[in-house]
Amino acid sequence: MPTHALLVRPALNRVYAESSVALMAAELAVFGTHVLGGRVTGIEPTRIGGVPYLTFDCPDLSDRDADYLANLSSAYALFELRGDLLAPVTLTPLDKFDDDLVTIQKYVGKTNEHFTKLMLNLAVVSSAAGPDMLTRRLRVFDPLCGRGTTLNQALLYGWDTAGIDLDTKDFDAYSTFLQTWLKRKRVKHQADVNRVRRDGKVIARRFTASIGTTKEGYKAGDALSLDYVNADTVESPRFHRAGTFDVLVADAPYGVQHGSRATGGLHRGPIDLVTAAIGGWSGLLRPGGTIALSWNTNVVPREAMVDALTTSDLTPLNDGPYLEFSHRVDQAIVRDIVIARKTA
Length: 344
Ligand SMILES: C[S@@+](CC[C@H](N)C(=O)[O-])C[C@H]1O[C@@H](n2cnc3c(N)ncnc32)[C@H](O)[C@@H]1O
Fold this sequence. Notes:
Elements: E1 4-8, H1 14-34, E2 41-48, E3 51-57, H2 63-69, E4 75-82, E5 85-89, H3 100-103, H4 113-125, E6 139-142, H5 149-156, E7 160-165, H6 168-184, E8 189-198, E9 201-211, H7 215-219, E10 224-230, E11 245-251, E12 257-258, E13 261-262, H8 270-284, E14 285-296, H9 302-308, E15 314-316, E16 327-330, E17 333-342
Parallel strand pairs: 6-7, 6-11, 7-10, 11-14
Antiparallel strand pairs: 1-3, 1-4, 2-3, 4-5, 8-9, 9-10, 12-13, 14-17, 15-17, 16-17
Helix pairs in contact: 1-4, 4-5
S-adenosylmethionine binds at residues 109-111, 144-147, 149-150, 164-167, 170, 232-233, 251, 253, 263, 266-267, 273.
């Protein structure tokens, strides 16, 4: 008899909704192993009253356990099962801002926000920072950040974040969006776009912001840090100090025309891009840090991407629930995730 039932958030995107129950089952299994002491068993998709839930056993679910589950990427509500009745368990997600921060922007090539949160969660709980997820301000890097879905999710969690993207339009759109959003929400902040110079030459543009999660905190000098560099991702180590990020999360170019946008048109195919960038990316991770990378398996088979993330200091987590994240995005894209952990 299962002890708990998670109500799955109705996803706006129909195709993602079809996969979201299976993806959350695998996400819950990863949480179970890494941050819930291996106590989660019997995870099953179940319909209760015609509505999809995930049921599972977790004896003696503590407040801390519920606080972790509150942040699952598609969790809507959690209940304890008492016979046929559902008793609500209060969920207190980490969110520091309104969640329209991740939902308002709509554009071709956007990584679905629930999926982005899934990747960030997997990276964090699989990393050395997993035990600190609820208490420490983590540092998140997206080296292919587009218009900033990962950056926004990291800010929503109350964490520091940085991104790089080569696309000038994405850089401009994101810096405009975030500044407008912060003003509209009356969030205390300071934001600037500057040129980065090396040896007298301009090598990139950089958007930085300090963002208060509360007015009082901001006045006392406590602010989240946001940093977006408009440059080639292989140059990442030029813009950040080594060993300073807890996790790195990226949705690689699909290598096909996605909507009206040729995301594969930026110089390299996904595997060449990852192969060229991986050394620099992993150098930016703290020991025990993780990379979560998603890509289109119609263009690059899983074994090839796992190989690309197997380096002298990175080990892919390539078993159990980590093999359960493949899902269809559209006719041309079947997306998968690989997580790799840096030697501690
Ligand atoms: C699938 S999209 C990521 C979308 C992003 N997660 C979002 O929600 O906006 C892949 C991104 O990789 C970027 N990209 C491709 N090659 C790059 C390179 N060499 N350096 C930096 N960014 C690159 C593209 O501009 C694109 O924004």
